[in-house]
Amino acid sequence: MDLKSYLKERCQLVDDALNRFLPLADDLPASLHKSMRYSIFAGGKRIRPILMLAACEAVGGNISQAMPAACAMEMIHTYSLIHDDLPAMDDDDFRRGNPTNHKVFGEAVAILAGDALLTEAFILLSNLAAAPTVPPAALVQVIQEISCCAGSRGMVGGQVVDMESEGNAEIDLATVQYIHTHKTGALIKASVKSGALLGGASSKDAESLTRYGEAIGLAFQIADDILDIEGTTEEIGKDAGSDEARGKATYPAVMGLAEAKIRAAELVDIALDALSAFDGKADPLREIASYIVKRKS
Amino acid sequence: MDLKSYLKERCQLVDDALNRFLPLADDLPASLHKSMRYSIFAGGKRIRPILMLAACEAVGGNISQAMPAACAMEMIHTYSLIHDDLPAMDDDDFRRGNPTNHKVFGEAVAILAGDALLTEAFILLSNLAAAPTVPPAALVQVIQEISCCAGSRGMVGGQVVDMESEGNAEIDLATVQYIHTHKTGALIKASVKSGALLGGASSKDAESLTRYGEAIGLAFQIADDILDIEGTTEEIGKDAGSDEARGKATYPAVMGLAEAKIRAAELVDIALDALSAFDGKADPLREIASYIVKRKS
Hints:
Chain A has 15 helices and two strands.
């Protein structure tokens, strides 16, 4: 399969759905809805929604069953970026080459746009009940999975430990692993698992896909750490080497670049192994696993 | 009935449940969980959860069916207060006589504690699926009601318009009504309606209780506006007259104090009227409606 065209086509499908699901830019209050849309349409790669759709298809489901939840996941991811960029947090002026949300709309609206995107995700998820193909019990399980992975013992917890570790020269591997599996890995795992649940996976298949999701979630963040060192500013859309400059807790920082690359490759193997019982419908998941550690942006 | 003892007893029940449902203060990351608990246990009156429990009982339900959702509602209310108090928003150093969350834990953790409380609310709601008395379909309807009322076309939207209207001398009644029904009214209405749904209300009863909730939600905020003028700093836990000093959009500001009092009383009548077909099990809701406009804090 041609992964590049696949990702491009799926990205477009997700963008179209996000455009349909989000409140219009003119809906009151317009400043809030413009701000929400600004960050949603700021050039995201839609990795999480694409993974959710692919997991749904891998178990024989149709992507329409997972699309609202896939968009909900992108909303949660986007809210986390808006809040991470705030002056009180990472204080970033640019993301993917564009001014960050608070630089355009001000801090107050940026905070509220993040809050609203997080909330909108649960509106979308609960609206799924109207889809006759999604049983309410599966839907509630998906809401539980996504909220747990996004909360204080998931993504938000990872962000707190990441922040508190910044500039600390004594960070150990266990802490970096905590940060990566929580801050980035949790939502990626939740995307894959939710796609499986919405596609009607057997519990065995859902378990295998969860293992796949955990492995690529961690691999994705290690690859990000490596890109921060080896990528150019143009490729990664932010200053190369910024993690080291900030004293960020990363895999290369605690185990060296070569060892980090080996670890990322091992995780891809674990991910592929988790898919061994799946047929060709899981090929996109296989390709994405390899792509995650080879990408240049 | 003795409303004072009733509210005190219910407040204690809600506090106990919040203590059970929230992650422990020592759970990692401890700073985040301490911050979440700090604001949850900062002396709230628990009006929203108490209303949810009372609505559940008014339709013949047991409060255990609604307690997790009642706590979820208090978490959403508390997250909104933490974010409203931030320097980029209202910039408040004190709330109910205590230092605000960001004064104690710093802005970054305060933002994340708010995010985590909002997310935790949906964890709690989805956990309700384990309760055999709550059918998944009703649960999804409650999640939809609560998320819609908390989102960009509900509470967050109201906060944006409130902020944007501050200092604007030309505010009209329609704008004040938008702010009040969205910023405060939406969650109060959602509390009452969700309690009804979780208690197994007929659609006719759920509709009546929704009308009750809408009326007291607006009455509650008008009463707050009036208290800001007539209450003492000690009673209301913040500087009296602060709304006027900030140029806040309030009912007394657009229609005068006397007219605002009449409007609040009319809304209580509408609320009581909505309960006319209910028996004695709705007495707490009746008493609370009257209390809302008579309270001194």
